[in-house]
TrEMBL record:
Pfam families: SSB. This is Single-stranded DNA-binding protein. CDD domains: SSB_OBF (cd04496). The keyword Transmembrane helix does not apply. It comes from the Bacteria. Keywords: DNA-binding. Residues 149-160 have a biased composition (Polar residues). Residues 149-171 are annotated as: Disordered. GO terms for molecular function: single-stranded DNA binding. Residues 161-171 have a biased composition (Acidic residues).
Amino acid sequence: MNSCILMAKIVRRPELRYTQDNQTPYAQMLVEFSPNRAEATPANLRAVAWGNLASEVAQNYNEGDRVILEGRLSMQTIDRPEGFKEKRAELVISHLYHLDGSVSSGEMAAPTPEKVVPINTHKSNKTEVEKPVAPVSTGDFEYDASYELSNPSAWQPSDTSVEENLDDIPF
């Protein structure tokens, strides 16, 4: 399956264009993502969004924005004026997520103590049902306030054993 998720920085503002039949919008931009090693240079990749996503990308994203791109990798063959063909990778975007300025390339935003929920604050599994103050009537049915809820009993298999005849094959 061809699926890529990249965290990158937009280095060229998204350009909104239309196909030759002037029907389908597409937005293309250049993104840069950090390499695995510190001594390597950042890599650039062309990213393309189609349809309604293209319009959204062109309106809401600018050069310098940090984003998470989700999509598929595609190879494009380009005829060069020097007489040879060049293959370039491009990412066809299916989802695009905006990161705020607090996230740097080397670290994801760490949870702060005020955002952490203590583990022992979970809700109880017991369902508490309040009894209504007055009888509730819904058409022909009248609610009985004296009715007590009971826990359903778990199903238990019967104790009777069944003799198996392995030679008898049912058809």
